[in-house]
Write a structure and sequence with these properties.
This is TIGR02677 family protein. The protein has 495 residues and is mostly helical. The protein has 3 domains: 2-116, Arc Repressor Mutant, subunit A, CATH 1.10.10.10; 119-298; 404-488, no CATH class. The protein is 58% helix and 8% strand. It is built from 17 helices and 9 strands. The chain is extended, with a radius of gyration of 39 Å.
Length: 495
Amino acid sequence: MGDRFRLFNFTHRDDYVVYLWVLRAMDRLRAVHRVQVGSEDVAAAMAELALAHDGVPMVDGSLRGRLDALAADGIVHRLEDASRAGSLERYRNRQSVYQFSELGYRAFTAVEDVLAARVRDANLSRLVFSDILDDLRSLAAANRAGDEEQVYRRISRLDQVMEDMVRRSARFHVTLGEIVTSTEASPELFLRYKNALLTHMTDVMAELDRHLPRLHRAVLDVEATGVATMLVRAADADDRPFLSPGERMEDWKRRWEVLRAWFTAEPGAESGAAELRRATRAAVSGVVALLRQLTEAQRGGVNRASELRHLAEWICDTPDEDAAYALAAAAFNLGSARHMGGAYDDVEQISPRATWWDAPGVEVALTPFRTGRQAGPGIPQPVRVDPRRRADLRREQIAARAAERRAARSLAERGPHGRALDEAETRVLLALLTRALEARSVVSGRLGSGDGSDDTVVLRLVPHSAGSSVRTPHGLLHLPGFALEIAPRAGTAHA
């Protein structure tokens, strides 16, 4: 990690602009397939750039030293090229050539991307959903037909489109959040583009609502053709030489799972498209709130800037310095300091002779710090209604109850003795036995019989001198002095 952060050292030097144009000159030579270049080649490229750009600095004889500094940071590789020496004297001198390292070129392009970024370029693409739908349908057709190259082309295009859509979405919402929350936003600029902004977000939400069910069905159609087969075909057509077949297979599997999670939701979770829709709706509400705030401020002529200007005028017009301090203290609530304190968890760590100035501070909860009141449990959170999860639980309960009834009918038909019970029958037997033991009565100093029942069968504890035993999956269950009788409950029918 330290080596990779070192790639950005040139941005912290005093002459970082010179280093930036040196790298731009090397990038210009790299674009015409001149990979290894010397210092004179870089100087010539910078001279060409100076003809088109006014900001190119003049580089004197220290160009080789700057290239060596870039090589020390790992942005470029320095190689010795003896073929460039035309004489023995030049051969004895160092004849170095330079070329971008792979990570160094990525660091340079990252800096260039930051310098070229414009806030007004942020947008959401509403036309991308129809392209994704067409690609999913074509992917299903290609996988069904066994066209390996077409499968690779379509799934690669889907991966690129999804990556671009996610990047655009994240950038747009971050930029919009800065506009809404920033106090330095220009009201005139915002009011000028408010209609276009609201229309843009509304169109994206309408397009997403229209395509989301179709995209969900298209993903399921692709899975119906065989996901494993599709991934094998994509990995076989992938021509990246530095990855093994297993690594390519895992890479395409990860990409497909990400794409699937965007348009299909698991139980109890939202899909990526649903989260995008929710974030866009919240952004629309924030824009409308900011628009209302700006409109009211312009209508009334009072905003934060005008309030501060009026306050400054009042302070300047006070008769003396004490009155100015008093007015400022009243305006900014400087006189109502709340003194708080607390005890350490381990009082032995702090010497009792230490003053409050020298002793370390005590952590204080945020609520008493802001309001002076003790922190409470807070208001109850709203219960999240999940009909899908509720339906799943209902189906599980119905299935469990049906299994209990089958086990109870098996006990009634086959009896509990002379055989080994299974897990389901054992659970039913123990539940009925518990109810029967709780219902036993004492007659003439002796325990009488007891009954335990449910809506299917009835279990009776009958006094018996020899007792009885039941074989369960966990061993023998002995019942001294009692025998078991299990019969269907009156009014129930057996399937």
